[in-house]
Amino acid sequence: MTRLRTVPALLLALLLPTLPVFADDNGILPFDAHTETLDNGLEVIVVNTGFPNLVSVQIPVQTGSRNEVEPGKSGFAHFFEHMMFRGTPNVSAAEYEAAMTRAGARRNAYTTDDYTNYYSTFAAEDLEEVLRIEADRFQNLDYSIEDFKTEARAVLGEYNKNSANPVRQILEVQRDNAYSQHPYKHTTMGFIEDIEDMPNEFDYSRTFFERWYRPEYTALIIAGDVDVDATMALVKQYWGNWNPPAAETLEIPAQVAPAGPVYTNVEWPSDTLPYVTVGFHGPAVLPDPYEWAALNMIFELYFSETSALYKRLVEQEQVVDQFFTYAPPRVDPYLATIFARVKDPAQATYVRDEIMKTFALARAEQVDAERLDEAKSNLRYGFTRGLDNTGDIAAELASWVHFERDYDTLNRVYAAYNTLAASDLHEVANAYFTDERLVVTTLAKDGLPADIGELPAMAVMAPVAEPVELDLLVQDNALPVINLKLLFEVGSAHDPAGKEGLARLAASMITDAGSRAMAISEINAAMFPIAASFNAQVDKEMTTFTGVFAAETWVTFLDLALPMLLDPGFREADFERMRDAQLNTLTEDLRNNNEEWLSKVALQRQVFRGTPYAYPSVGTVEGIQAITLDDVRAFVTEAYALGRLKIGINGDVPEGLVERLGVELAALPAESGLEDSGVPVANIPHGLQVEIIEKDTRATAITLGHPLDLIRGDDDFAALWLARTWLGEHRSAMSRLYQRIREVRGMNYGDYAYIESFDNGMFQFFPDPNNARKSQLFEMWIRPVEPKNAHMATRIAIHELQQLIDNGLSEAAFEDVRNYLSKNVFVMTSTQDQQLGYALDSNWYGIDEFADYMRAELADMTVDDVNAAIRRHFSAENLFITYVTQDAEGLKAALAEDAFSPMSYDADKPQALLDEDQLIGALELDIDADDISIVPVDSVFGGAQ
């Protein structure tokens, strides 16, 4: 057993008295905050979180798409989320990025309907520098018309990226039809016609910025390892002189009273399962959060995974494979919506009616008081378990402070939750779930039932052993939340031939199909009041079951979770439900609705064709369809054995928990019946070998790369990690690819490089742990570009890679990236799940704890080591390339002809860039037509790979 004390005694002393789950005054935030309004109107909130080394700065500005009131001017709040990184006369964009890199920071921004938030999490020692450069860009932002037009095209690229997502399109159409006067009529991206016209609105952009980017609309949140007095002195030094000239104010037009019901259908151009959404115009959060809290509680009780409706539609009848709610807190009255993805279009009207009947039920009955108390408990425990790192604490504050620039807003909301009675929910349901407020939106490729648009009235819908010695790693600390990982060294690489996807489906049948004693709906209901979760993650070599629960609820959690593993339910209905969901994940979520991610996993197919690494863990179409329930039973029996099990625990581990695990897990087989997966033999590209996936899509997604002959822990790994960071740090403007393709040319949303697999990269900064592999590949991910620019984007990526190989990193670049990584590794492993997951991975690779390992490797490294490793392991001449595009034949012809790739810009560009375009556009790729294959999207991951 390995025990790691990860929270020092001083932090323990700070945490214990400040983390009550329930407080006498209903305050949910366990911190003492210093709040102060500067003379210029800037609201400052400083919070010492008790966590060492890191500080998070969040700057929510009260401007979102809600503030875009003039016709033809939507999208500018989101646009400035981009432009704020363009630099000032004092600090250029490059200097800003360099300063953030020196601080080891992860920083970004996001825009909502109501506000735009700029955030960064970094080493505490760099607080003054971060405050200085952030203050400078808020006070002195400057950009040329050329930069303006370039960024406007990048925004269009982001819209194009999002256009393949059905849910985003539903929201866009739903709001356009639900609102007539209020700016909530458009999403944060804005109307497409406004985005396309944005390059012509340079003068208006200045007006928008001067109108809304002002201290009286801004809050500055500084949380983490801070001294309040010293921090306030820095704030006043750098932010106190922010006094912009007076600007006109605009009233946000109020929405007229809803006059529904409203129905709209989105005609989807490509294959997808239909969506049915039922929403109502709901309340604003403030000034009194009581109504919004009551509505949110109704959604929790009637539409969550523990609800009777979810159980019936998803688990029992299996007519729906996705079911979720969307009722975010907003400044003005907003839509509260239920989303359902329907497996059979003929069932769309039935699903709509069942959702409406449930809303009617909420109007007709009063919920059970005990059930309501359980929901309140779930909310509070769920919130508390999220307070495990400085970055998340600061982010949570930003999401609520923006309303009135008030630290106490979140406390007021949870105080409202605490006061709710069943009669309050009944009152709010009757006030808001009415015919006039009803908004129904559907999405489908082909025809839905003829009566789907004939909305019924709400009144019509109205109506219920001996312990074993475990391979155990314990990270003991003061956090009152336990993260428990059961990691089995078995994954999709162990799928039998012809049953691809079996490991993934077997894991789903453990966590999402119940135990023999309890159906999954009963387990979800029992876990609800303790806000616990039990989830599975499957990759090539690992299956990880993760439980998260409050320490004081550990007995209840194990009572529910362990039987799911040791005595699974294996019900035929659950099996059919989970198999259908897995097939839809492959065919709908990956192949049909996510071209950019499809290009990444398809590249792995090229590299590892003929091996179990050639297909995603979700499997293949033929493989999933061939799996039987007996296959799942046999796999679980053979795979989940003590000999393959590693256990990790993080948190304030209760007495008795480890002992009970030892007793109950003794029921597992001692050894696995599966053979070792072996090391997959990768294919080696000879020259440039291209696969084009033909799909009806607006943009072209690109991924290119080649196999690597090393993995984490090998001699050159850390050196290549540093080189990869410089070339293409994920979701970071510091990377070379990002700078040359997205930043200066505005060709797409982003460009990154990897030497380890990184799943879910669209949604997160860091890769999930517990995806360790025996073989990896180097890849460059070029997010979707306009089809006419696909050839040029490929040439730029290859050119930049060749330049890196030929010239290496400079001493200065090496030092900058090394400094960044030595600090950023703390951000990368800041959460409970990351700390525990990376520690288990380190054991698998046979290295020290990840942060220690990387910092030690970086400390001993030289620039010559890195450049030598680059030359040994990277190649720009021998690459596999995967495209996903509509005009596959046209792209093949362009690649084979190797003709010049022209570039055109909406804005004037420096001559140096234009000269570079001439050079790169003529770069000879020498791709033989015989090395270019075209495959239809429906064949990808269809059968044997």
List the helices and strands and how they pair.
Elements: E1 2-5, H1 9-15, E2 33-37, E3 43-48, E4 54-61, H2 76-83, H3 93-102, E5 106-111, E6 116-123, H4 127-140, H5 145-162, H6 166-178, H7 192-197, H8 202-212, E7 219-224, H9 228-239, E8 262-267, E9 275-281, H10 290-303, H11 308-316, E10 320-326, E11 335-342, H12 348-364, H13 369-385, H14 390-401, H15 409-419, H16 422-432, E12 438-444, H17 458-461, E13 472-476, E14 481-488, H18 502-511, H19 520-527, E15 533-538, E16 543-550, H20 554-566, H21 572-592, H22 595-608, H23 621-626, H24 629-639, E17 645-651, H25 657-664, E18 688-694, E19 700-707, H26 717-728, H27 736-743, E20 751-754, E21 777-785, H28 790-807, H29 811-828, H30 832-845, H31 850-860, H32 863-873, E22 879-885, H33 888-897, H34 911-921, E23 932-936
Helix pairs in contact: 2-5, 3-29, 4-9, 10-15, 10-16, 12-16, 18-21, 18-24, 26-29, 26-32, 27-28, 29-31
Q: What is shown here, in short?
A:
It is built from 34 helices and 23 strands. The protein is an alpha+beta fold. This is Insulinase family protein.
